[in-house]
Design a protein that fits this description.
By secondary structure, the chain is mostly helical. It is built from 8 helices and 2 strands, in the order ααααββαααα. The chain has a two-stranded antiparallel sheet. Belongs to the G-protein coupled receptor T2R family.
Length: 302
């Protein structure tokens, strides 16, 4: 029928666009992981910044990979998703790696802020001294929070309210979840994690701006080039790019929570485009803000 033909062509366009976004994103995140793993083997250790970047690259690579495979199967071989636990596992891993991505990004922003900003507050000085020891625990906590959301997403996908037969019916492989009062706690938890990670980025940007402004006021009488000022400016460029992209991504995540229950196909398409762009584009910004990664990338590109 004409309606089924439109749905099929719409789904094909969606899969094509997602493929064009997902593969470059997977490549740039795989590049980050490979460079850091080689450095890890050579130096036998990684600093805190590299640890965060390594886990961030891994989470984004696997998120894009699993999400792309899920969308591809939902359009080309939707019957594969009818098999018990396939849909649940796909939803679990997507939720886990997506929230890992958000929390590791927030950890990176907070780390930049604490390491670079200069405040005389005793608590801030304590954090600056202890931050390297705190990073592994922050990463562990981020993984546990992401795991909790993944488990809840798996439980929701296993409910009879979640109809996996809707894959391929025009909603691009997203399970058709009918709103139920039992699902509100899970949506609340996911929304809370979105908002909390977003607030970390906002506070990091605000504190770095304040630090940069205060440092600039102190250095107005000094005409010499200041390395601390350069570090502030580089970090601010990175975190402001984080803030802009995080704002767009946060809006898309919230809209996704709304439209997953209302089958808003056109809005879902726009949301997917932004969500698949974020992990790759943000990682590319991270590469060009890191001298070692930038030098390696420019060396291998020719």
């Amino acid at each position: 029928s004409p309606q089924q033909s439109n749905v099929t062509s719409y789904g094909a366009i969606t899969v094509a666009i997602i493929t064009l976004e997902a593969f470059p994103g997977m490549w740039i995140n795989a590049f980050i992981v490979c460079v850091l793993c080689i450095a890890w083997v050579k130096k036998k250790t990684l600093n805190s910044n590299e640890k965060i970047l390594l886990l961030l690259g891994c989470s984004r690579f696997w998120y894009l990979c699993i999400a792309w495979v899920y969308k591809f199967l939902s359009f080309i071989y939707p019957n594969y998703l009818y098999v018990h636990t396939i849909l649940q596992l796909a939803v679990f891993f997507q939720a886990f790696f997506n929230h890992s991505n958000l929390w590791f990004s927030a950890c990176l922003c907070g780390f930049y802020c604490i390491k670079i900003a200069n405040f005389r507050n005793r608590s801030f000085i304590y954090l600056k001294v202890k931050i390297d020891r705190m990073v592994p625990w922050l990463l562990l906590g981020s993984g546990i929070l992401a795991l909790a959301v993944g488990i809840i997403a798996y439980d929701i996908a296993a409910k009879p309210h979640c109809n996996s037969n809707s894959t391929g019916q025009g909603n691009f492989g997203t399970a058709n979840i009918k709103m139920d009062k039992h699902f509100f706690p899970s949506f609340f938890l996911a929304g809370f994690e979105y908002a909390a990670s977003f607030l970390v980025v906002i506070f990091a940007a605000v504190f770095l701006l304040l630090s940069l402004w205060r440092h600039k006021c102190r250095m107005q009488t000094n005409s010499m080039k200041d390395l601390s000022m350069d570090a502030h400016i580089r970090a601010m460029k990175s975190i402001l790019s984080f803030l802009v992209m995080y704002s767009i991504n946060f809006v898309c995540l919230v809209l996704n929570m709304v439209y997953v229950t209302k089958k808003g196909n056109h809005m879902t398409f726009i949301i997917l485009v932004f969500q698949y762009t974020f992990p790759g584009l943000h990682s590319l910004i991270l590469v060009f803000s890191n001298p070692k990664l930038e030098k390696t990338l420019l060396k291998i590109l020719p």
